[in-house]
Amino acid sequence: MPNIGPLELAIVLIIALVIFGPKRLPDLGRSLGSGMREFKDSITGKSEEEAKLEETKRELTKQSPATTAEPDEDDDPATTAEPVDADVVSDSRS
Predict the structure, then answer these.
(1) Which of these, 16, 19, 67, 82, is most buried using a 10 Å CB contact count?
(2) How far apart are CA 21 and CA 50, in angstroms?
(3) Would you say 28 and 20 are in contact if contact means Cβ atoms under 8 Å apart?
């Protein structure tokens, strides 16, 4: 079997782009990826429930930290709070 190099991959991708067009190519990639994932799961013996759980975890990790319910441990309210305009009180006892 011949080795497939970067030039051959580029030619295949260009041909796929010409045949399917730029609008359908991302959908084809997604469906190909999900098909490969299902095939791998069936080979390894994962159940559908485990696969759904992993996909849910994957989707949650894609979300930005601002949409998660739990705050990060590094977020200190004192450092992330907005500055407040206030009067400065000095100690004049000294």
Answers:
(1) 16
(2) 35
(3) yes
Report how far Cα 71 is from the mean position of its chain's Cα atoms: 19
Count up the domains in the chain and report the number. Answer: 1
In a domain, 26, yes or no: yes
- Domain of 34? 10-62
From first to last of its 94 residues, the chain has per-residue pLDDT tens of 678 899 998 999 899 899 988 889 889 889 999 999 889 888 887 777 777 788 888 888 877 555 555 555 555 555 556 666 767 666 666 5
Which residue intervals of the chain are DSSP H helices? Answer: 6-44, 48-62, 77-80
0.70 exceeded by the pTM? no
At residue 80, the pLDDT reads 59
Choose among 66, 57, 9: nearest CA to 49.
57
Please name the residues in contact with 37: beta carbons below 8 A apart, sequence gap of 6 or more: 51
Torsion 77-82-86-89 (CA) sign: positive
